[in-house]
Amino acid sequence: MRRLADAGRVQAFMRAFSRAATASGRVYFTGGATAVLNGWREATIDVDIKIVPEQDALLRAIPSLKESLELNVELAAPDDFIPVKEGWADRSPFVAQEGRLAFHHFDLCAQALAKIERGHDQDRQDVETMLDRALVTPEQLREYFEAISGRLYRYPAVDEASFRRSLDDLLARRSAPPGPGTGAP
Predict the structure, then answer these.
(1) Does a structural domain hold residue 181?
(2) Sheet (strand 72-75) strand order
(3) Which residues constitute the domain of residue 24?
(4) pLDDT in tens, 34-87
(5) 120-130: per-residue pLDDT in tens?
(6) From CA 43, how far away is CA 155, in angstroms rounded?
């Protein structure tokens, strides 16, 4: 039985995973792992990662680490679901260096937009928190969306109009003045 991953368990994964590396590389956290390591969620179901460059030794280590650490590890990143802007790696905040591996959070704007596109309740809450903490801004999200919208055709499961509406709706709710009965003076 695998358990939820809190910050300590994600850090244990980082140490164990780095021991399997045969060369230097980067590991990018996405989704719940970013939320947990940034402290806005206590735990996550999955540790989603992207390995650059991919290393067979690291890929082969994942099944045994999942069992020994009782942790769900998935290969998933925003660029699996939406296009990302060139230079995303340079915009990916550093987390830690463990042995040969540098751990980063995948480009936060890309993560936020991928969450908006998915539209799950937890994803929307995560984007709200990212905005509240100024990890991303409404302007950055709009600019990023415009930069990638011309390449959405490469992702047939994504409906551009629906994606744009979801972004617009989320940002409009944030900029709307509080209504009656919300505690506003």
Answers:
(1) no
(2) 72-75, 46-52, 25-30, 101-105, 94-98
(3) 7-175
(4) 999 999 999 999 999 999 999 999 999 999 999 999 999 999 999 999 999 999
(5) 999 999 999 99
(6) 30
Residue 96 has pLDDT above 70, yes or no: yes
In a domain, 1, yes or no: no
Residue 103 lies in a domain: yes
- The structural domain count of the chain equals 1
| Nearest one of 69, 76, 75, 74 to 2, comparing CA atoms | 69
**Alpha carbon separation from 94 to 28, 32, 39, 106, 175 (Å, rounded):** 9, 16, 15, 9, 30
Residue 67 lies in a domain: yes
